[in-house]
Specification:
The chain has two domains: about 60 residues, DNA polymerase, domain 1 (Orthogonal Bundle); about 300 residues, TIM Barrel (Alpha-Beta Barrel). The strands form three sheets. A ten-stranded mixed sheet has the order 3-4-5-6-9-10-11-12-13-14, sandwiched between helices. Strands 1-2 form a two-stranded parallel ribbon. A two-stranded antiparallel ribbon has the order 7-8. Strand 10, helix 7 and strand 11 form a beta-alpha-beta unit. The protein is about 40% helix and about 20% strand. By secondary structure, it is an alpha/beta fold. Helix 5 packs parallel to helix 6, helix 7 runs parallel beside helix 9 and helix 10 runs parallel beside helix 11. It contains 13 helices and 14 strands. Bound molecules: S-adenosyl-L-homocysteine and iron/sulfur cluster.
Length: about 375
């Protein structure tokens, strides 16, 4: 019989329950987590400290498998981007971003997105489907063990130190699948990342911000992009359901649970739309007296048909300076992997757009690589 249950879908508690239900020792879950998530082993026969009957049973009923890789692009700056096949002509992407003090993986949570933010190419594609836990966590599993091998890291050395849920999709619209994946990221028997090194970014799904606070208060980033409801209604349509007053109140509640004492507000600077110095001052007024926050200013990544432009470096600098003068830490996100379009939703958009020349090229690479990529598990 073909293996069906992907172990990448389980957090440790769920794996233990699954084992117990099948008559195996629950404590074997811990050993299994070590093999899969700390050593990258996908072949049950190699998991030598598991009881033989469990190994045989796993070989029959389970698998460890990441999504098939359609394409990989490596930037001159070390950024690596993978495009994963999620079926039905859809794809999601993950981006590995090496920096001096950390290596960050940007992970996707959905194929497409229903939130329809006007400046986002994922939003422009519409919503296809939620990823399941194995598909979310599989991105980390794949990237961690691919990069460990490629960077020549010694046994036990980690390739990825930080995870940001800032790829395609709205993670808090896929909470049921997100939560087990976050738990494995934090589990000391798996990736062992501290809660401060895992960031969930949301466009503002207020009830789910409260759920996350209770269940797994990792670092929170909120995509604000505007200092008032009128403008945010236009840029982030979800604002019409959860306006700024409700969103900021949820952030305040979140910080009571979070080990991290600030929230990152993301602000994508759009030329002539939200990037004026008076809008920076309006943002300061909006936030005055509320809670500790930092601002992540993101230069807009243009895409065809958006009708929007990137703010000039001078305007970005002026906006950042206005915040900084008021004592707010404002970092301008560096554009990484510019030569490979390593921005939210861009490459996956090309695959969907099979009529564009570049899209056809990517699909051609994808077709050639598909067969080779079907079985992605390898043994560390
Ligand atoms: N859906 C979540 C997380 C994914 S998007 C969210 O919206 O927060 C991650 C970040 O990239 C968000 O802050 C989003 O607003 C921003 N973003 C989306 N499209 C962008 C673009 N074209 N240029 C720059 N930033 C963009
Ligand atoms: Fe979805 Fe985030 Fe893009 Fe908005 S910015 S459409 S929430 S992925």
């Amino acid at each position: 019989m073909k293996p069906t249950t992907n172990l990448l879908a389980f957090d440790q508690a769920a794996l233990a329950a699954w084992y117990a239900q099948a008559g195996h020792k629950a404590f074997r879950a811990r050993q299994t987590m070590h093999w899969v998530h700390q050593r990258g082993v996908a072949d049950f026969g190699s998991m030598t400290d598991l009881a033989r009957p469990l190994r045989d049973w796993l070989a029959e009923h389970a698998c460890v498998r990441a999504l098939p890789v359609l394409a990989e692009q490596c930037s001159r700056d070390g950024t690596v981007k993978w495009l994963f096949d999620v079926g039905a002509g859809n794809a999601v992407e993950s981006v590995f971003i090496p920096e001096a003090a950390r290596n960050t993986l940007c992970v996707s949570s959905q194929a497409g997105c229903a939130m329809a933010c006007s400046f986002c190419s994922t939003g422009a594609q519409g919503f296809s489907r939620n990823l399941d836990s194995a598909e979310i966590l599989g991105q980390l599993w794949w990237a961690e063990f691919t990069m460990r091998q490629r960077l020549g890291l010694a046994e036990g050395q980690r390739a990825i130190s930080n995870v940001v849920m800032m790829g395609m999709g709205e993670p808090l619209q896929n909470y049921g699948a997100l939560l087990p994946a976050l738990r494995v990221m934090l589990d000391d028997d798996a990736y062992g990342l501290s809660r401060r090194r895992v960031t969930v970014s949301t466009s503002g799904v207020v009830p789910m911000i409260d759920r996350l606070a209770d269940d797994c208060p990792v670092a929170l980033a909120v995509s604000l992009h505007a200092p008032n409801d009128a403008l945010r209604d236009q840029l982030v349509p979800l604002n019409r359901k959860y306006p700024l007053s409700e969103l900021l109140a949820a952030c305040e509640r979140y910080l009571r649970h979070a080990p991290r004492d600030f929230i990152t507000l993301e602000y994508c600077l759009l030329d002539g739309i939200n990037d004026a110095p008076e809008q920076a001052r309006e943002l300061l007024a909006l936030m005055r007296g509320r809670f500790p926050w930092k601002c992540n200013l993101i230069p807009f990544n243009p895409f065809p048909g958006s009708g929007l432009g990137r703010s000039s470096p001078q305007r970005v600098a002026a906006f950042a300076a206005t915040l900084a003068e008021a004592g707010i830490v404002a970092t301008v996100r560096k554009t990484r992997g510019d030569d490979i379009d390593a921005a939210c939703g861009q490459l996956a958009g090309e695959v969907q757009d099979r009529t564009s020349r570049r899209g056809r090229r990517v699909v051609a690479i994808a077709d050639a690589q598909r067969a080779a990529a079907m079985d992605t598990g390898w043994t560390a």
